[in-house]
Design a protein that fits this description.
The complex is a heterodimer of chains A (346) and B (380). Chain A is of the alpha+beta class and 346 residues long. Chain A contains nine helices and 13 strands. Chain A has two domains: 143 residues, PurM-like, N-terminal domain (60s Ribosomal Protein L30, Chain: A), CATH 3.30.1330; 159 residues, PurM-like C-terminal domain (Phosphoribosyl-aminoimidazole Synthetase, Chain A, domain 2), CATH 3.90.650.10. The longest helix of chain A has 18 residues. Chain B is 40% helix and 17% strand. Chain B has 17 helices and 13 strands. Chain B has a five-stranded parallel sheet, sandwiched between helices. In chain B, strands 4-3-5-6 form a four-stranded parallel sheet, with helices on both faces. The longest helix of chain B has 16 residues. The radius of gyration of chain B is 21 Å and the shape is globular. The relative contact order of chain B is 0.16. The chains are: A alpha+beta (346), B alpha/beta (380). The interface between A and B is large, with 28 and 50 residues.
Chain lengths: 346, 380
Amino acid sequence: MKAYQRKLDIRNGCVDLSHGSGGRAMAQLISGLFHEAFGNEWLARGNDQSAFDVGAGRMVMTTDGYVVSPLFFPGGNIGSLAVHGTVNDIAMAGAKPLYLSASFIIEEGFRFADLKTIADSMGEAARTAGVHIITGDTKVVERGKADGLFISTSAVGIVPDGLDLSAENARVGDRVLISGTLGDHGVAIMSKRQNLAFETEIVSDSAALNDLVARMVEAGGAGIRLMRDPTRGGLAATLNEIAQQSRLGFHLREEEIPVKPGVAAACELLGLDPLHVANEGKLVAIVAPEIAGAVLAAMRAHPLGRDAADIGEAVADDHHFVQMATSFGGGRIVDWLSGEQLPRIC
Amino acid sequence: MKYADEFRDKEIALGLAKTIRAETHPGRPYRFMEFCGGHTHAISRYGLEDMLPSNVRMIHGPGCPVCVLPAGRIDMAIRLAERSEVILCVYGDLMRVPGSQGASLLKAKARGADVRMVYSTIDAVRIAQENPEREIVFFAIGFETTTPPTAVMIRLVEKKQLSNFSVFCNHVLTPPAMQNILESPDIRSIGRVEIDGFVGPAHVSTIIGTAPYEFFAEEFGKPVVISGFEPLDMMQAILMLVRQVNENRHEVENQYSRAVTRDGNLRAKEEVSDIFELRDQFEWRGLGQVPYSGLKLKRAYAKYDAEVRFGMNELCVDDNPACECGAILRGVKKPVDCKLFGTVCTPETPMGSCMVSSEGACAAHWTYGRFRDHQQRRAS
């Protein structure tokens, strides 16, 4: 006999400890909310794992945790971010992302309506990126033990033949390309932080870059040495990492680096450097000089690379400095961000 | 960006650089101290040094309120924050400032002290309203520019009749510190720091005006140019100083005429003098005790004074003996002259105060300019 179970009250209900206990309530949450949002043949089979065929070639795997605050921000939410960020980590190997896992740690009292919005955005982000969320996990913790919701996603993808992108591959003379304006995500998040709320039209750039990457790989092939998405720590941290790993330096030209006026203004106000501010839908590519033009053209032809720019080059430098000619006419280092990104006080 | 790009124009900058080069006498040194950390930051961030002739040297002064805060005051704040009833509200820059033995507010927070980062005095007042059962203390710091907001906050707290709010006052004053740099006997004994003129901070002068520097310029025979913080402002101010030096003048000139007047902001000055009074002396990291250089709350406002309310004792802590912050803040030494610079002392693990705030001379040089040290070494 099938037990009667009240429908999930998505509009008014909220998560309680029973939704993480392994009982019917949990099964209902998973099937009624997550499967609904992610809908695919793997989840439909209801196993603790999902099987998929492995083709020839090399695979890549990555994992990432998402603890963004606030959970909803202009241009996305923690769910879309959890898909985009992990898809992008796979894409930075030049790889085609295939399957994702998603793990949710939910604080009791979290509203079903919000959880549904977040799960739906994950489903939509996955469909847009052409990937499937094929396995997952749900845990519920007591009130006060998590800030609403944490999500962890992992992904696997497949690398095209002949491609081996890695941070130690940059060579002197290589060009530095970025796919668009810097700092949009960080500023969008900060504009909604408690104590800091300010009005801006800036929305997060959160987006899956795998299609852009595929176009770039078509245009540049093995001439692409490496790609990175400049998330926390911004472009500055990314280029410093690459400089260390490839044992060289970079020379950038500030006037070539695209920054939206709203982002520049917010950074000015808060005493931040746009080069330190996080991005979630941008990439930096280090490419051989002879294919730089073709790759840049391919980037600009893609909706996510319209503002792509060639911002500088790799140079020989034993100290692995990232230097920049300022638009004002002087020179300076672009250093790692130290500590938290804190506004100056006067 | 409107109202900013106009003051960062490369062509005008190159024109000013050319004029400075043309008007400086090649054999003569021009040593100018930019007092304020905001100027230090701008010089480094825009690479201004690259645009000046080699005989024009900018000496970085002690005008970063975070940098000059002595370790003892940080220790006092940590002790306060460790009290269970207290919520300490601070500006972000203060979190990592080293107290004694590597202590900091950030570490105290990790151990359980309730330290909250705020972006304005209004945030602190809101926290006080939201937590009537707790004691809210605002860590007030800064030069003349940030003192009026503290005064306004106290007025607001008074109006709202909040009984759980007080201020740990660390406000300091610019002119006495500049005077101290020129008067201090140990500078004279070292005898190496020659200053030919000062770039004065415009933001401070939007409040106090230019008049307080007139005595200083006259008494010490040094020109002062009050300058804005955009790179073109600074280039123009440097040119104005070069001209004064060449013409043997020592006047107070106002480059930032778009916001600064001789008398400053009368309303703000009135609010400040209603609520604050001079301390007999206040300790500056690097300068030691400087007479009449700090403010405290007047007796009538003692109930808002955390030092009175919590019976806080003044703590004095010696800086690391190898740390050269003192000499660097006075312009006697450069960051690279310090053994700790870039070895054990970096922005991640600051030993001295100059490395903490991005406006500190060491942090600015480390973050933006250290590639020049290697270039110079190679060239020599």
